[in-house]
Amino acid sequence: MTTIIREEEQEEQSRFPIGIQERLSGEFDLNQFLVEKGGEKNRLRLQNESPSQSRANHNDFQGLKESVQNFFHEKIQDQNITEEERDERLRIQHSATIGDAEAMNMLVDEITTYLRNSSLQNIPYDPMFDSLAHALFEHIFRFKNFYKWQLHPESPSAKISGKEIWFKINGQFVKQEEEFESVKEVEQLIRLLQQSNKNFTINEQHPQGELDLEDGTRVTLTIPPRTLYPTIVFRRFIVNQFSFEEQASRGTIHPNDVPLFQTLAKVRRNTVIAGAVESGKSTMLKTFYAERPSGLVALMIEEHPETFLKRDFPDRLVHEFSIKDGDIQRVLRTVLRFDHDYVIMQEVRGVEADAAMDGASRGANGLLMTYHVTEPSKVCEQLAQHVLDAYPNRRYINEVRRVSQTLELGVTMKTFPGNKKRVTSVFEVNYDYDTDRAWISYLIRFNPIVGKWEYNDHISEKFQEQLLEIGKEEHDSFCQLLSERTAASPLSTEAVQPILFKDAGEGE
Length: 508
Fold this sequence. Notes:
By secondary structure, the protein is an alpha/beta fold. Helices cover 41% and strands 19% of the residues. GO terms for molecular function: ATP hydrolysis activity.
């Protein structure tokens, strides 16, 4: 019977042209045959192929990208889906743009299925991407070749300026060979980010704005007339292990000083961490937070959500607030009603500095704050001046006094060549109510001439009392280690610097 059927099949095949006979003897691809005979115009539109696909040139990445874009557009325009389904699909696309991992994976999977069903998996793509589907996803829904920044995890910031792409590497911005095809393409990227953030608006009347991606990356966008070309600045944390051991491994502190810093964090002194932009302040603040007892409740106050304590410390209770300058005094009283053990404030300026002092005086000890300082030895005076800038009717001398009475510990930081972040000093802020005098006393100071840290083991009575409150063993260990470090590398400069109480125009 089998022999008869095969003979009948051969007789049937002989009726077709020789080209088809050859294909019928094996696997026959009808589309391939039709294209060979009559070109692309003869290609059949199969059920798993969108109408737009047959019109696109799939021999290059750009043509395939347009086809995939049309594929997603047709899904949105599908008359057979409900408005709720359409809204959900748009939500997924917008979430993917700002980096939601689940949404990103869903779209990459859809693109992968589309490519497989369409037999379009062999188109060349840039090897920086994980796959063809991934490359298409980044070019359609995210930042195109700017994805390369993800391959430089030690780069803290990057810029898109016009068509150009720049990465900060080892402390210097380095221009990348990749560029956007046109400024218009960058403008499209800005619109894409705007569509993905319903509370974000940027236009000629509001030419600058900021938003956050899902991974905590801070994005600042500026358009003409504020800048000559559209500019996008990205900033991110490059450290995700918040411990003093990690800080020591990066050269930020000396490895032998890890126990000293651990104790400084546990004591919960009102602490300011000061330095220039990208000097490591925020990472140091989170390291102090990590070292504090996990059972303590913190109030986190910042203008924009960028610290993300709950994300990095999911097992801790923290109340995180985003408050604009104009609202901070109005809402601070309400915020401080939340049960808390201490306050954390990022990047304090005028109004925030005043609120930080106010919050620390009303709440429990342990204020943690960062501050963009220009002169580390003048932290108290500069903070007072910022308060005065916001409230010019106040007296400078009173604000210096208030800051000196509130702050207890200062940590200053600086970026050195090679993008090396380093603690440049640790000092106490002391105030004597009997004499109305204030001064800072250095405990640790980095000497850039010899390239090493120097120490002073004379600590205040108040600090000794605070150390004893957390335990005599902790007190004794801290004092002994600080004395050992001082003996090995004593401070070569004055340990004490006065904080001057005088208004403008006054003499000494």
